[in-house]
Amino acid sequence: MTSKKTSPATVAAQALGWIDPVTRAVVPPVHPSSTFVRDSDNGYSSGRMYARADCPGYDQPEAVLTELEGGRAAALFASGLAAASAVFLALAPGDHVVIPPVMYWALRHWLLTFATRWGLAVEMVDPTDLDAVRAAVIPGRTKVVWVETPANPLWTVSDIAALAGIAHAAGARLAVDSTVATPVLTRPLALGADIVMHSATKYLNGHSDVVAGALVTGSDDDFWQRIKTNRAQMGGILGSFEAWLLLRGMRTLFARVPLACRSAQTLAERLSTHPNVLEVLYPGLPGFPGHETARRQMIGGFGAMLSIRVQGGAAAAIAAAARVTVWKRATSLGGVESFIEHRATIEGPTSPVPPDLLRLSVGLEAVEDLIGDLTEALDRAPG
Ligand code: PLP
User: Fold this and answer.
1) Angle at 154 between CA 150 and CA 159, to 5 degrees
2) DSSP H helices in 97-143
3) Does residue 158 register a pLDDT over 70?
4) Is the Cα torsion angle 135, 136, 141, 144 positive or negative in sign?
5) Taking 80 as the threshold, does the pLDDT of residue 383 lie above it?
6) Is 273 found in the same domain as 170?
7) Ligand 1: which atom is nearest the Cα of residue 152?
8) Measuring from atom 15 of ligand 1, which residue has the nearest CA?
9) CA 149 to ligand 1 centroid distance, Å
10) 217 and 293 both lie in a single domain
11) Catalytic: which of 52, 226, 270, 323?
């Protein structure tokens, strides 16, 4: 470990400056072992018994993430959804939670189906309407206020500090899905949040070759211990090799995210003037409703996700997406390659997503290639 206090970019690049004590390697080994040897006195001096609870490959990525988020501890999960659902499964049936209408659709769906059947009282409230959130929380009964910012796929920006104040006044925790913001752009715990969640599949790993999730906590309390116990007991854990790949991906986070943000800003500005684009949704545009909050809350960029609404409706949007060749028509986000997706096709009729919306995940390609490819595809819409 580096003994000096270093900036987050250095923490990420050097993965906390870890050097293997035996080989002096700068890269850790993959630990595939599922079990660990018991001592002759019947104890476990290594502190590890079985990899479902004690995977050594988690130590370094969890420590890096804890440091980047300024938290007390982190936990890796088999996917972002496993991480998010772990927060709700650490509650008890009868508890009340407040969720936003705009959020990662599959988590919203799980909350409104499984979690509701399991006994959580799930209430959907617009988190940009602070009075509505204040009216929705029930002191003593609301246990979690969940928010995603910027929120998929309309990029709604929510005020973390204000929501933390409202949640805490009611005795609830604020949990933030910060997948799109990444620790490069926003540090929710410093703004008052209690738990940060990442789909590590996205920017943290960054190469579209791992499905993983993570939680970071601001305090190592009973709630956190319940989450950790549930992870070990329910057993949907991340593999050692995936944890190793995730650590490798996180090392370039501070190089990838700012570059992708700059390209997203350029694209948002250029697409705003395209005659076949009705609207560009991007927190970095001054006219965007959440722009001022984003300016206060986000550091050095507004994210690399944006959406456009295409003149001519769903058919025109799908046809435009069919014409690109540099952009890849794929779901997911946060990879080195840029993705385009007609979101309503994925999210279905109950989603708040307009049918003419294309979601863009901006990668690391030359921005002029991305602009040229997309404007050419849009030039022919609606048609
Ligand atoms: N949160 C956000 C903002 C996402 O975009 C996603 C996936 O797209 C998830 C959570 C779920 O993560 P995963 O696919 O890793 O389970």
Assistant:
1) 35
2) 105-110, 116-118, 130-136
3) yes
4) negative
5) no
6) no
7) 3
8) 80
9) 13
10) no
11) 52
